[in-house]
Design brief:
12 helices; 76% helix; globular; FluC; fluoride transmembrane transporter activity
Length: 297
């Protein structure tokens, strides 16, 4: 719970920090690289994490890194380049190149950051002290504090100023449900087939389809400000935490040969086809704007 919340806050904060006029690289590149780097460190330290407190490893990898990185955001960002949703003055070839750049840069940067994190963890491991596992009372307190942390997102949404909702507080409400959905899908479906991780694939595709649908609804001018903030929260929180690039990169790195290529290709193609059907058909029908039309409070 707290790791999911911190992951969302880190993603939104990092995106806000690196989004500015004349930016040299798209903002999500920083998000994916940071999450994959931390994931690499955690993977390299899996044994010490497990010996100390197993749930801490799950919190860092599944919770924090999985919520910091976002597969659905990456796919929508690519599709927005194809359709030039930013209304930039460029030809169709420029749209194609921009989408292609966001594809291969994210893939290479994520895998390189993951491997670099593993390398860094190997340098740190010899100097790590051996820690005793926390006692039962400490574990119970951590569980209780975790529940309280997520419970605090509800008063944060209702009590903080309304203009914070689209920025963060709405996303915090849906962060843990998104992470929990991904976790349940992965542990139940990933072992089913050896070809590729089915659970992560379904989580990424489901989150991409939902995020595309939320973007379409946000393009309808008649949506109320409260609904618009909730849709933004569902996109940033639920879809952002339901989908992950850090776990995706770790699974690609773990797969052998053609299986890795199949997993990457299938994930990218299906993701883009889903957005083509959901977002493309809505945009080109002329009833929905490609830019955000609804207003926030």
């Amino acid at each position: 719970m707290p790791a999911s919340i911190l992951g969302v806050l880190a993603r939104l904060g990092l995106q806000a920090l690196v989004t500015y006029d004349g930016e040299s690289i798209f903002s999500l590149a920083y998000v994916q690289a940071t999450g994959c780097f931390i994931m690499g460190i955690a993977l390299g330290m899996k044994a010490p994490f497990g010996n100390f407190y197993g749930p801490l490893y799950t919190a860092v990898t599944t919770g924090f890194c999985g919520s910091l990185t976002t597969f659905s955001g990456w796919q929508v960002d690519i599709f927005d380049s194809w359709v030039n949703s930013g209304q930039f003055h460029r030809a169709g070839l420029g749209d194609f190149i921009d989408g292609l750049t966001k594809t291969w840069v994210t893939l290479l940067l994520s895998l390189a950051s993951l491997m670099f994190g593993v390398h860094v963890s190997g340098s740190i491991l010899p100097y790590l002290p051996t820690l005793r596992p926390p006692k039962k009372n400490v574990r119970y307190c951590l569980t209780f504090l975790s529940i309280l942390t997520y419970a605090a997102t509800f008063p944060a949404y209702f009590r903080l100023p309304a203009n914070y909702r689209h920025q963060a507080t709405a996303a915090l409400l849906f962060s843990f449900p998104g992470t929990l959905t991904r976790y349940l899908l992965s542990i139940n479906l990933n072992p089913r087939i050896k070809l590729f991780p089915l659970g992560t694939f379904i989580a990424n595709m489901l989150g991409t389809a939902l995020l595309g649908a939320f973007h379409v609804v946000q393009g309808v001018p008649s949506v109320s400000p409260d609904a618009c903030s909730l849709l933004q929260g569902l996109g940033d929180g639920y879809c952002g935490c339901l989908t992950t690039v850090s776990t995706f990169a770790a699974e690609v790195d773990a797969l052998a040969g053609w299986k890795a290529s199949l997993y990457v290709t299938l994930s990218w193609v299906v993701g883009q086809l889903l957005l083509l059907v959901i977002m493309g058909s809505s945009f080109w029908a002329g009833h929905v704007s490609e830019q955000l039309s609804c207003s926030f409070q």
